[in-house]
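Entry for the shared binder. Reason: the reviewer on the internal report wants the predicted structure included alongside the sequence.
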Amino acid sequence: MFGFMFVIVGAALAAGLAGAGSAFGTGIAGQAANGVTSEDPGKFGSLLVLQALPGTQGIYGLVALFMIAGKLPEPEAFGGISVSTGLAMVGAALPVAITGLVSGIYQGKVCAAACSLVAKRAGEVGKGMVYAVIVETYAVLGLLGTILLLQRINM
């Protein structure tokens, strides 16, 4: 039964930490976007895109949760999951969990700076997005790491 509990912990870490990174990041970017929108409501659309960008880390964490849950055997076999397999699942969940948390926060900061860019030069939103997408790369790599590790675990 402890093996099953570790699998659940791994899934929770993947979704929870990556989701927390998205919540922090979208909150940071949203604060900056609100300030700009208060001065120029016409920039709302561009700013909304910048605020939404850090939300993708939460999606990656949720994908990892579904992949982990998809590897679980039928409920009657939950007790047959070894502790070592459960710990392997926790380890496999860590890349997306950690990169999702950290990159979500920092992508939010980059997007907040991009909101300042849009405040001064509305046509430059694309450049701000490019900077944010570079941070996103590491969240994608974290998800890829989790996927590759999960493929190597036999339940």
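Summary line for the report: Residues 92 and 146 are 5 Å apart (CA to CA).
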